[in-house]
């Protein structure tokens, strides 16, 4: 079974914010793979389906970003999922809007959702798909920035990176992760 987790915050006020790009990818994957997000357990919204013979679990933690590990750990334990079969999708301030980057492991890099996952999983060796949201340039506080919406001129770039992220996740279901990295990090 493969677990694909998109990080974000629940609630209407956060729907189109920079911090919720992980949720957007899960919504796209839900539509593309025809996996309804119809289960609610372990402080998360999720769905289970199949793609090319692979069982797939799509998850949106409802714990709020900073507590994401509190949802993911119980799901991993309940469904007996290997850390090798997990990918976490989230926003990244260090990448420009429109860029994505896949990695096999790494530090939290200041991202509180990833800090929570590292704490609850007991390792930083899990796959990640980072979606660039850029940094504020006008002195805005980081929290206000990531909880803000994309500017009009950023919307095409973010839509493209969400589509690329969805394609990368779909490809990972039937392809070695290093091959997916080589293709989508190019």
Structure report:
- The structure is a single chain.
- By secondary structure, the chain is an alpha/beta fold.
- The chain has one domain: Peptidyl-tRNA hydrolase (Rossmann fold, 3-Layer(aba) Sandwich), CATH 3.40.50.
- It is 35% helix and 22% strand.
- The chain is built from six helices and seven strands.
- It is globular and about 45 Å long.
- The mean pLDDT is 96.
List keywords for this structure.
Rossmann fold; 186 residues; globular; 22% strand; 6 helices
Q: What is Rg?
A: 15 Å
Strand content: 15-25%
What's the arrangement of strands in the largest beta sheet? 2-3-4-1-5-7-6
The helix count comes to 6
Total number of domains: 1
Number of strands: 7
* Percent in helix: 25-40%
CATH C-level category: Alpha Beta
Write the element-wise H/E pattern from the N-terminal end onward: EHEEEHEEHEHHH
Major sheet characteristics: 7 strands, mixed
User: What value does the average pLDDT take?
Assistant: 96
Globally, the shape reads globular
Uncertain spans, ≥5 residues at pLDDT below 50? none
Identify the CATH architecture: 3-Layer(aba) Sandwich
Distance between the termini: 27 Å
CATH superfamily: Peptidyl-tRNA hydrolase
Q: What structural class should be given to the helix and strand makeup?
A: alpha/beta
């Amino acid at each position: 079974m493969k677990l694909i987790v998109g990080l974000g915050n629940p609630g209407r006020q956060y729907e189109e914010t920079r911090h919720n790009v992980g949720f957007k990818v899960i919504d796209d994957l839900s539509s593309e793979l025809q996996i309804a997000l119809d289960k609610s357990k372990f402080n998360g919204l999720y769905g289970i389906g199949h793609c090319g013979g692979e069982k797939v679990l799509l998850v949106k933690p409802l714990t709020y970003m900073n507590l994401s590990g509190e949802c993911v750990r119980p799901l991993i334990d309940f469904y007996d999922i290997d850390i090798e079969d997990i990918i976490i999708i989230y926003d990244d301030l260090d990448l420009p809007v429109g860029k994505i980057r896949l990695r096999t492991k790494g530090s939290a890099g200041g991202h509180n959702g990833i800090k929570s996952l590292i704490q609850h999983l007991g390792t930083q060796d899990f796959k990640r798909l980072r979606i660039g949201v850029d940094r504020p340039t006008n002195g805005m506080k980081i929290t206000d920035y990531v909880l803000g919406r994309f500017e009009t001129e950023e919307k095409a770039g973010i839509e493209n990176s969400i589509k690329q992220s969805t394609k990368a996740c779909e490809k990972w279901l039937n392809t070695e992760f290093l091959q997916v990295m080589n293709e989508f990090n190019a």
